[in-house]
UniProtKB/TrEMBL annotation:
Keywords: Membrane, Transmembrane, Transmembrane helix
Protein name: Uncharacterized protein
Membrane-spanning intervals of the chain: 21-41, 88-106, 126-147, 153-184
Length: 194
């Protein structure tokens, strides 16, 4: 992330130094924002009589997206659009939290010369966030266009959802691997003869 954020921080005149305390605060903000988004999603389901939002499903086919938008009803579509007012900020919170955690773990990771590409790992949460925002734009466009159909939007929404969850899964997997690497290094360091 530092290599990704370096040009931005230079333009703004900032020196980014992420610490464990920052990651803890970012984690709390992430959890609070996740709870707010889950509550807002529940409000949509309550308004629709149980039809849930599409953003929480991993593999939405274009047909399923169409069926869900129809099943939402007029009040549900309005509630879903209001949901996006809250969901707009959620990708930002998880992207900052996950990428910051990766930066901290990478700082302590002894991977050697062959693993320089790991420095790109903190970009994964940002890729997920971009696809999350694309998903929000396409689904909200479909909600606004209803009852008119535009098949490319259904395909784009389906692709964005799959890409978002794939990038999130890779990011979380990266965090687990980096955390495992960090813990193994700590254990080996404490067992090493002094």
């Amino acid at each position: 992330m530092m290599t990704i954020m370096r040009p931005i921080s230079r333009m703004l005149g900032l020196r980014l130094k992420i610490t464990g305390f920052h990651v803890l605060i970012l984690g709390l903000i992430f959890v609070v924002s996740m709870l707010i988004v889950r509550h807002a999603a529940g409000q949509v389901a309550e308004t629709t009589g149980g039809v849930s939002i599409l953003d929480l499903n991993i593999g939405n086919s274009p047909g399923f997206i169409r069926e869900t938008i129809v099943a939402l009803g007029e009040n549900g579509r309005v509630a879903y659009l209001r949901f996006y007012l809250v969901d707009t900020f959620y990708p930002l919170t998880y992207a900052i939290f996950y990428s910051s955690w990766m930066v901290i773990l990478l700082r302590h990771c002894r991977t050697g010369h062959n693993f320089r590409h790991l420095k790109a790992l903190p970009a994964l949460p940002w890729i997920a966030a971009v696809f999350d925002w694309l998903e929000n734009i396409t689904i909200s466009s479909l909600l606004l266009l209803f009852p008119r159909d535009w098949q490319p939007l259904y395909v784009a929404a389906s692709f964005a959802t799959i890409a978002k969850f794939s990038a999130i899964a890779l990011a979380v997997g990266g965090i687990v691997i980096l955390l495992g690497n960090y813990l193994v290094q700590k254990i080996m360091h404490h067992r090493a003869p002094r």
